[in-house]
């Protein structure tokens, strides 16, 4: 049966945070989207409601076995228009995660439309200062109240919205971050769930992140789980290296998240005439390039992080300073162009932005 969207608008508007000092992910807008799944009805009861806590049975499967997936994308306001950046890619990836996590598929185009309605309703929450945006968090959780290990027969999909500033709290958007190359803990292995956006991947990363923070680093760079030699991804972003004029990023090998910003950066770099290699890349090779002076730039890409230059890589006993701890030209050009396209200030030759239209 075709899904229909019902709307319950709130009458008591929430107080907005101070938009001069927006942190990442701590404030939420007036409304949220919810829909439910059960075996009899499939996905049903799609609705926009006031933002409010949800009530779940303590035995709901998500609390015990972590059957949960999520997405992250952003909306921007520019010249009176509201733009989403490649929203279809996120809902496509949500279904890839769903498939692996044994969660039923969702109607991607229905969700893009429902999201447009939600963002349109809460548009006065979209921040407009440089580096700010409305972060969109769709997620699915298993809600069946039973503690057998089994795929849930009931789910809830929700979309919440958060006005945000830069992701890394200790820096402004383009100040280089310090990365700790993790060679004790691992994130994922081929055949596992590393390519999905499932919550457990992030839970499993926290111990290493705490270690990195204690040692004075911002993020962890994960290596392959089998040999602990090859670069995979960073805690909240994909990673790129500019070596001797060429750009290299780890190939999607089954244990790496296929980032939407990663894909956009590769397309943009090729459009600019760069050679981009998606391949296996070892820390040895990076250390060699650092030693002979050909490691020109390192940067991460992600929805939350956008483009995040890396100023230092700590690997075993080596501290490798990249580009004098300064933001490189390529990182800056990429940030300005991607952020410019996202906010509608730059031409979008790729057709990535989707104006919010409510039918
Ligand atoms: C994103 O970049 O949207 C992410 O989901 C990464 C992180 C905030 C978990």
CATH topology of the largest domain: D-amino Acid Aminotransferase, Chain A, domain 2
Bound small-molecule species: 2-OXO-4-methylpentanoic acid
Order of helix and strand elements from N to C terminus: EEEHEEEHHEEEHHEEEEHEHEEEHE
Categorize the overall geometry. Answer: globular
State the main characteristics:
D-amino Acid Aminotransferase, Chain A, domain 1; 359 residues; alpha+beta; 9-stranded mixed β-sheet; D-amino Acid Aminotransferase, Chain A, domain 2
Brief rundown of the structure:
This protein is of the alpha+beta class and 359 residues long. 23% of the residues lie in helices and 30% in strands. It has two domains: 160 residues, 2-Layer Sandwich (D-amino Acid Aminotransferase, Chain A, domain 1); 167 residues, D-amino Acid Aminotransferase, Chain A, domain 2 (Alpha-Beta Barrel), CATH 3.20.10.
Q: Can you put this structure into words, describing what you see?
A:
By secondary structure, this protein is of the alpha+beta class. It has two domains: 5-164, 2-Layer Sandwich (D-amino Acid Aminotransferase, Chain A, domain 1), CATH 3.30.470; 177-343, D-amino Acid Aminotransferase, subunit A, domain 2 (D-amino Acid Aminotransferase, Chain A, domain 2, Alpha-Beta Barrel), CATH 3.20.10.10. The chain has eight helices and 18 strands. The protein has helices at 61-65, 87-100, 108-121, 199-203, 206-214, 260-271, 283-291, 329-342; strands at 5-7, 31-38, 42-50, 68-70, 73-78, 81-85, 133-142, 154-164, 177-181, 219-223, 231-234, 238-243, 246-250, 276-279, 295-302, 306-315, 318-321, 353-355. Helix 2 (87-100) crosses helix 3 (108-121). It is globular. The mean pLDDT is 95. Bound molecules: 2-OXO-4-methylpentanoic acid (COI). The site of 2-OXO-4-methylpentanoic acid (COI) has 6 residues, from loops.
């Amino acid at each position: 049966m075709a899904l229909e969207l019902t709307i319950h608008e709130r009458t008591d508007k929430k107080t907005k945070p101070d938009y001069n000092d927006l942190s990442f992910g701590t404030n939420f807008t007036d409304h949220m989207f919810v829909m439910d799944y059960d075996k009899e009805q499939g996905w049903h009861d799609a609705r926009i409601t006031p933002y409010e806590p949800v009530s779940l049975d303590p035995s709901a499967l998500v609390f015990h076995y972590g059957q949960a997936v999520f997405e992250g994308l952003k909306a921007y306001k520019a010249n009176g228009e509201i733009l989403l950046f490649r929203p279809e890619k996120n809902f496509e990836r949500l279904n890839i995660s769903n498939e692996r996590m044994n969660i039923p598929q969702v109607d991607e185009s229905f969700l893009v439309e429902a999201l447009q309605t939600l963002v349109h309703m809460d548009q006065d929450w979209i921040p407009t200062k440089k580096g700010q945006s409305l972060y969109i968090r769709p997620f699915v959780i298993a809600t069946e109240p039973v503690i057998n290990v089994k795929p849930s027969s009931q789910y809830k999909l929700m979309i919440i919205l958060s006005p945000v500033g830069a992701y890394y709290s200790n820096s402004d958007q383009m100040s280089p971050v310090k990365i700790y190359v993790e060679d004790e803990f691992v994130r994922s292995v081929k055949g596992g769930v590393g390519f999905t956006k499932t919550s457990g991947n992030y839970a499993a990363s926290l111990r290493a992140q705490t270690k990195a923070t204690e040692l004075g680093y911002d993020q962890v760079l994960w290596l392959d789980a089998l040999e602990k030699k090859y670069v995979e991804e960073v805690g909240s972003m994909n990673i790129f290296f500019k070596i001797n004029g060429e750009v290299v990023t780890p190939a999607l090998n089954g244990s790496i998240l296929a980032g939407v910003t990663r894909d956009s950066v590769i397309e943009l770099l090729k459009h600019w005439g760069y050679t981009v290699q998606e391949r296996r890349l070892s820390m040895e090779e990076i250390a060699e390039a650092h030693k002979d002076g050909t490691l020109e730039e390192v940067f991460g890409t992600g929805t939350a992080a956008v483009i995040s230059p890396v100023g230092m890589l700590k690997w075993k006993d080596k501290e490798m300073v990249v580009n004098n701890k300064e933001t490189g030209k390529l990182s800056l050009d990429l940030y300005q162009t991607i952020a410019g396209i996202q906010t509608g200030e730059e031409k979008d030759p790729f057709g990535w932005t989707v104006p919010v239209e409510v039918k």
